[in-house]
Amino acid sequence: TRASIDIIQFTERFLASVLGASSARIVVNSALQGRGIGISDVISIVDEASQVLEFNRALLQATIENINQGISVVDQNLRLVVWNQRYLDNIREGQPHRYVRYRQDGSVLEVQGNPMPGGGFVYTYQDITQQKRIEEALIRSENNIRIYTDNVPALIAYFDKECRYLFTNRAYEQAFNIDRNAVIGRRFEDVLPVKQAEERAPWVARALNGERVSFEVSLRVNEAMRYMLVTYTPHFGDSQAILGFFALYQDITERRQAEIALKETNETLEERVRERTQALSEANAALRQENRVR
Questions:
Q1: DSSP H helical segments within 66-157, as ranges?
Q2: Which of 118, 121, 171 is nearest to 146 (CA)?
Q3: CA 175 – CA 195 distance, rounded (Å)
Q4: Residue 129: exposed, middle, or buried by beta-carbon count in 10 A (0-12, 13-18, 19+)?
Q5: Is the dihedral of CA 278, 283, 284, 285 positive or negative?
Q6: Nearest to 235 by CA among 134, 163, 138
Q7: Residue 39's pLDDT is what?
Q8: How far is CA 182 from the centre of its chain?
């Protein structure tokens, strides 16, 4: 039947991948004819299987030799069974190295290799699962904080006690036209224009002395002048030592413009009152002069 032919062909192909094509044909034909395999056929099968195995090993070795990374394979008995030249070169160079291994059970190992004076390496394995979990939790926490802070209209930044940027939100980066990846770790006077840095320096000093300070600045954002209320809030550690400070910029342009408009209105009104008062004074003086004449 057709199904039987398919099975025979599949079996022959499967055996050929292990024993070789001619050996597989001998095995299949012997099975179909119901006879045993002669000693000469066995020798032929073993010989061809050895050639196939040697070819597969050579192909595997040629493949891993053309990979940039050093590769080694250890079997279930912890024996080194496959390696490439780059792996040997790395071992011979005697350079300390470190890598992290994530295991299927969820644990994480840090593996460190250090060369011995007489040759060879000493490997140490340390379970850093808890450390990695804390790091991942911190990353998730920072991502959540960034989601919140990137979606508020205020400008937010955090500086350490050396005045180095440790955090900026999207609004701050857009207002000052900076890249967070480029400024993190840099001092604010190396990032801001000289005039802005000089204006803020006294307020920064007061914040690092433990004082919460507020002041107003004007800032050009997207070609428009905006007025900002800036608040520096010191960050205290558990021992009340200053760790840094938070910077918060709130846009008060509308309020400031209203104050300016009100001031201008008051000045205009006062000027009109002075003009009217002067006019009345002149009119009264004229009337008194006229009465004396009479």
A1: 85-93, 129-149
A2: 171
A3: 16
A4: middle
A5: positive
A6: 163
A7: 45
A8: 12
pLDDT tens for 230-285 read 999 999 988 889 999 999 999 998 887 777 777 777 777 777 777 777 777 767 77
Pairing of the two strands 224-236 and 97-102? unpaired
Reference 100, options 64, 136, 68; nearest CA is 136
Per residue in 143-174, pLDDT (tens digit) is 888 888 888 889 999 999 999 999 999 999 99
For the record, the structure tokens of 286 come out as 């004229």
CA distance 167 to 185: 9
Taking alpha carbons only, the member of 40, 61, 58 closest to residue 50 is 58
- Do 132 and 108 form a contact (C-beta atoms < 8 A)? yes
DSSP H helices, 168-210, are 170-176, 180-183, 194-208
Name 249's bridge partners: 155, 230
Place of tokens 């071992």: 91
- The two counts, helices (H) then strands (E), for the chain are 9, 10
Asked if 24 and 15 count as a contact pair (C-beta separation under 8 A), the reply is yes
N-term to C-term CA, the chain: 147
Q: Is 154 helix (H, G, I), strand (E, B) or coil?
A: coil
Structure tokens at 184: 């993190």
Q: What is the pTM of this model?
A: 0.50
Encode 72-108: b = buried (16+ Cβ within 10 Å), e = exposed: eeeeeeeeeeebbebbeebbeeeeeeeeeeeeeeeeb
Q: How far apart are CA 19 and CA 84, in angstroms?
A: 26
